[in-house]
Design a protein that fits this description.
Elements lengths: L1 H13 L1 H6 L14 H5 L11 E12 L7 E5 L14 E5 L12 E11 L2 E14 L8 E2 L17 E12 L3 H4 L2 E4 L14 H11 L3 E4 L28 E12 L2 E6 L5 E2 L16 E11 L14 H18 L3 E8 L8 H12 L6 E3 L11 E8 L3 E11 L7 E10 L5 E8 L23 H21 L5 E6 L7 H8 L3 E2 H4 L8 E3 L2 E3 L2 E5 L1 H4 L2 E6 L39 E5 L22 E4 L5 E3 L4 E3 L41
Parallel strand pairs: 3-5, 6-7, 9-11, 13-14, 19-20
Antiparallel strand pairs: 1-2, 1-4, 2-3, 4-5, 7-8, 7-10, 8-9, 10-11, 10-12, 13-26, 14-16, 15-16, 17-18, 17-27, 18-19, 20-24, 21-24, 22-23, 25-26, 28-29
Helix pairs in contact: 6-7, 8-9
Length: 675
C-alpha cells in the first residue's frame, strides 16, 4: 500500500494550486506519506517517536475547541488498513493552535512530530493540515465487547472509531462532576464479597470486574465541566444519571489518558431510565410495624460547622435538611435506627433534638416522633448512633443500654432499646450499630488488609460482632423477649466475617433470606454491595412481612447531594433540589413486622452458637430527666405508664396508627422551607 500512497502524493502535488483554492490551508511539504498503522506500531509506543511525518486519514472525531481536547482524531480509510489486529489505524492530532477547522468525514493530510498526548500516541507541533475532501464515508466502527479479554487489548484500537453494541449498565458516576465521566459495564458490578466468601474466589471476581468496565468521557479535559454533558442535554437535579441505567450501541473514539482507556462519545448516549428509575416511596413491606435503618451521612447542626463533618455552612445545613427530612418522612417508620448523627448530646438544640423537631413539622396525623435519650453520650466519637420512634404506635420499655468494650474502641458504640407495640402488646428490642470503616489508616497486624477482599479492620469488626452476640444473649436473658433486631452500617459486605459471625449465632439476614443476593445499599468505585444490614433473631424471623432497600442515594451522582459544588451558583443547570434523592451516600433499609400472635409469614430454620467474650454493659438509669426545645420528659419504666425515653416536639398529632401510609409526594411541599 505504501508505494500507492507515494504515487497519489506525487499526483496531488501537481494539483496543489487547485487544492489550495478548494480549502487546503498549507502546503504539505515533500515528505512521503506514512501510514497511521506504521506510526502506531504494534506496541505501546509508536515507531516514529520524535520524527516529523506526514499522514493521511479520515477525521472520525472533531474536538478542536479550546474547552475540548484541542485536537481531532483521524483514521485510515478501510481500504488502506493493514489488517494487523495488533496495530491501531487511528491517531490523535494535537493542534491547540486550531490552525485549520476540520469536521467529521474530512479526508486530511497532516504533517507533525510524533509524540504523546496524555500518554497516547499523537502528532504534535503541527506543520500543516490540508483538507483534501469532505463528507467522506467514515471507517467502519470496530465493535468492542465487555468483558474484555485483557485491558492491553484496547491498545490496538487507540484513537479509532469504536462501538459498544451490547446493552451496558451505568456502574459508576463518581467522576461525573470532576471530569464529566461515567463507567459502563456488562450488567451491574457487585462487590465480590457481597456474594462470595472472602479469599481466592473473591480475588478472582475482583480481577473479572476490572475487565468488565469502560470509562465514557465527554469532549473536554477541563475540570468541573459546565454543563455536565451526561445525560443529554445536561445533568441537573431533575435530569439525573443513575447507576443502573442502561445504554445500547454507544459509539465514540477509543482514547487513552493515564491511567485508563476511555471512549470519547461522538453523539449523545440514549439511556434507558426504566432499568433503574427513581421511585417516590419505598416498596410496601406489609405488617403492622415498619422498622428502618439509615446512615444519614453526617448530620451535624452547627453552629460551628467543620469542613470534615457534614454540612460546612449554615446554608449547606439547610440543603441537607431539605433532603433528609423528606427522605425520613417517606420511610413512614415506627422505629428508625440512625447512624452518623452528631454526638453532641441530647439537650435542646442538639443534632438529634433538631432533627426530630424538623421531622415532626412535616409528618401527617398518626406520627409523633421522639428520640431515645440514653442520658449520657454513648462514647467520645464525633458521630453517634441514635434511635427515634413514633410514640403513637410503640412504647419504650425500660432504659436504653450501651456497651463498653475494647472491640468498639474505634467504632461507634451501639445503642439498644426495648419497645412494646401498642396495638398487639408484643415486645421487641432493637440495637443500632456502626462498626469501624474499611479505611486502612493506622491498621496493622490482623487489622491490616489481608488481601481476601475484606479490606482493613476486618478483625476488629469481627471481634465487635462477637461481643455484640454475647451482649445480646445476656440482654435477652434479662428481658422478656426473644424478638431482636440488629441493624446499622456494619461496614462489612454480606459474605464477610462480621456478618457470618452474626448468622452463625442464629441471626437471620433479611435481604439474603428474601432471595436478594445482589441487594446493595452502597456503591464504591463502581461496585455495589450491602454495607448496611438488618438481621433478626430466629423467633422474630417468622414475623417479618417484608424487607426492601429504597435506592434514593447510592445510585445517584454524588454532586446532586447537599454539599455545594465549586462555582455551583453559576452552573447552567441546577444541581440541588429539596427532594430525597442523594440525601446520603447510603440507601435506607425498611422492614415490615407483624407481631400479633398467630400470624406467620416466614419459617426460618437456624442454629445458635454462643460466642463468649468478656464485656461490660452500661445501663442508663430509668429515672434520667431530659428536656427538649418543646417538651420535658421524665424517663419512666413500663410500670409507670406511657413515657418516652427522649425528647422532641409532638408535631404529628394523634390519630389511628393503622391509617394508610402516605407517599412522599404528599409531604414534599411541606418541606419547602428547607430550600
Amino acid at each position: 500500500m505504501q508505494p500507492l500512497k507515494t504515487i497519489v502524493h506525487g499526483a496531488l502535488l501537481l494539483l496543489l494550486p487547485l487544492l489550495i483554492l478548494f480549502g487546503a490551508t498549507e502546503q504539505p511539504g515533500a515528505q512521503p506519506l506514512v501510514s497511521i498503522h506504521s506510526v502506531q506500531g504494534n506496541g505501546s509506543w509508536g515507531n516514529f517517536a520524535g520524527n516529523t511525518v506526514t499522514i493521511e486519514g479520515i477525521v472520525v472525531g472533531d474536538f478542536q475547541e479550546n474547552d475540548q481536547l484541542n485536537g481531532f482524531f483521524v483514521q485510515e480509510e478501510d481500504g488502506d488498513a493493514d489488517g494487523d489486529e495488533a496495530t491501531s489505524e487511528g491517531l490523535f492530532i494535537f493542534d491547540p493552535g486550531f490552525s485549520t477547522d476540520v469536521h467529521e468525514g474530512d479526508l486530511v493530510r497532516v504533517t507533525g512530530t510524533v509524540g504523546e498526548y496524555n500518554q497516547m500516541t499523537s502528532l504534535r507541533n503541527i506543520v500543516s493540515i490540508m483538507v483534501i475532501s469532505s463528507d467522506n464515508l467514515l471507517p467502519a466502527a470496530v465493535p468492542i465487547l465487555l468483558p474484555l479479554q485483557s485491558i492491553d487489548m484496547l491498545e490496538q484500537y487507540e484513537a479509532m472509531l469504536i462501538t459498544l453494541p451490547q446493552e451496558l449498565t451505568v456502574s459508576d458516576t463518581s467522576n461525573l462532576g470532576l471530569y464529566g465521566q461515567f463507567t459502563l459495564s456488562d450488567g451491574r458490578l457487585m462487590i465480590p464479597t457481597n456474594s462470595i466468601h472472602p479469599g481466592p474466589e473473591a480475588a478472582a471476581q475482583t480481577a473479572d470486574n476490572e475487565l468488565n468496565r469502560i470509562i465514557i468521557d465527554d469532549d473536554t479535559n477541563i475540570l468541573y465541566p459546565d454543563p455536565i454533558l451526561f445525560p443529554f442535554p445536561g445533568l441537573s437535579a431533575l435530569n439525573t444519571l443513575r447507576c443502573g441505567y442502561t445504554v445500547t450501541g454507544l459509539t465514540g473514539i477509543m482514547a487513552y489518558a493515564w491511567p485508563s482507556y476511555r471512549v470519547h462519545v461522538t453523539g449523545p448516549p440514549q439511556f434507558d431510565e426504566s432499568a433503574n428509575p427513581r421511585t417516590p416511596e419505598p416498596e410496601d413491606v406489609g405488617g403492622t410495624l415498619r422498622i428502618a435503618c439509615f446512615n444519614v451521612e453526617n448530620f451535624f447542626n452547627g453552629p460551628n460547622f467543620a469542613a470534615s463533618w457534614g454540612a460546612q455552612s449554615a446554608a449547606e445545613f439547610l440543603r441537607q435538611t431539605g433532603k433528609l427530612i423528606p427522605a425520613l418522612a417517606a420511610l413512614q417508620a415506627d422505629v428508625l435506627g440512625l447512624q452518623e448523627i452528631e454526638n453532641d448530646g441530647y439537650d435542646p438544640g442538639s443534632a438529634i433534638d433538631e432533627l426530630v423537631n424538623l421531622l415532626n413539622e412535616v409528618m401527617p396525623p398518626g406520627f409523633s416522633y421522639v428520640f431515645v435519650n440514653p442520658g449520657d453520650r454513648l462514647d467520645s466519637s464525633k458521630q453517634s448512633n441514635a434511635i427515634i420512634y413514633n410514640e403513637e404506635t410503640v412504647i419504650p420499655v425500660g432504659a436504653a443500654e450501651t456497651i463498653r468494650d475494647s472491640a468498639f474502641s474505634n467504632s461507634r458504640a451501639p445503642i439498644i432499646q426495648m419497645f412494646r407495640e401498642t396495638a398487639s402488646g408484643e415486645q421487641f428490642a432493637l440495637v443500632v450499630n456502626h462498626l469501624k470503616s474499611k479505611g486502612c489508616g493506622s491498621a496493622t497486624g490482623a487489622d491490616a488488609d489481608q488481601g481476601d477482599g475484606q479490606s482493613c479492620w476486618n478483625a476488629k469488626r469481627t471481634q465487635a460482632a462477637g461481643v455484640l452476640v454475647s451482649w445480646l444473649e445476656e440482654y435477652t436473658g434479662r428481658h422478656d423477649t426473644s424478638n431482636i433486631l440488629i441493624l446499622g452500617d456494619l461496614n462489612a459486605y454480606t459474605m464477610e466475617d462480621p456478618i457470618t459471625t452474626l448468622e452463625t449465632a442464629g441471626y437471620v439476614h433479611l435481604l439474603k433470606q428474601q432471595g436478594e443476593p445482589e441487594a446493595y445499599t452502597y456503591v464504591w468505585q463502581g461496585e455495589a454491595g450491602c454495607l448496611d444490614h438488618v438481621l433478626v433473631s430466629a423467633d422474630l424471623a417468622d414475623k417479618v412481612t417484608g424487607a426492601t432497600v429504597w435506592h434514593i442515594d447510592a445510585d445517584e451522582p454524588a454532586l446532586l447531594g447537599y454539599h455545594f459544588e465549586p462555582d455551583e451558583e453559576n452552573k447552567i443547570n441546577p444541581l440541588y433540589n429539596n427532594d430525597p434523592y442523594r440525601t446520603s451516600d447510603h440507601d435506607p433499609i425498611i422492614v415490615g413486622l407483624s407481631l400479633q400472635a398467630g400470624i406467620t409469614t416466614t419459617t426460618v430454620a437456624s442454629t445458635t452458637t454462643t460466642i463468649l467474650i468478656s464485656s461490660t454493659t452500661t445501663t442508663i438509669p430509668a429515672d434520667t430527666t431530659t428536656t427538649s426545645s418543646s417538651t420535658t420528659t421524665t424517663l419512666k419504666s413500663e410500670s409507670e405508664g406511657k413515657g418516652g425515653t427522649g425528647g422532641g416536639s409532638s408535631g404529628g398529632g394523634g390519630g389511628d396508627a393503622s391509617m394508610p401510609r402516605l407517599s412522599v409526594d404528599n409531604f414534599l411541599d411541606m418541606s419547602t422551607g428547607f430550600n
